Amino acid sequence: xxxxxxxxxxxxxxxxxxxxxxxxxxxxxxxxxxxxxxxxxxxxxxxxxxxxxxxxxxxxxxxxxxxxxxxxxxxxxxxxxxxxxxxxxxxxxxxxxxxxxxxxxxxxxxx
Length: 111
Description:
- The mean pLDDT is 88.
- The protein contains 2 helices and 4 strands, in the order H-H-E-E-E-E.
- It starts with a helix and ends with a strand.
- It is an alpha+beta fold.
């Protein structure tokens, strides 16, 4: 379970740092792999097997991503070309009742 908690914690950090351009342009996490077989913070064990953190890190870096943070919706485009997208925002109660809905076409500039 501690590996999953670590993975979700790093995912949150990656999202916030990706939407913080130009203050932050990336994330490095310690420690990538192990030099010896042991229980550690690495994302790949001594034998080359992926731990939950490595799967989460791979999933957290798509070229185009939409994040919800601090009550706002932020889109990130790390491509070198513009991307046309349709943003659909829906807020629902846990019982499924729709509270808010908005659809908006957007053009995401490169970088």
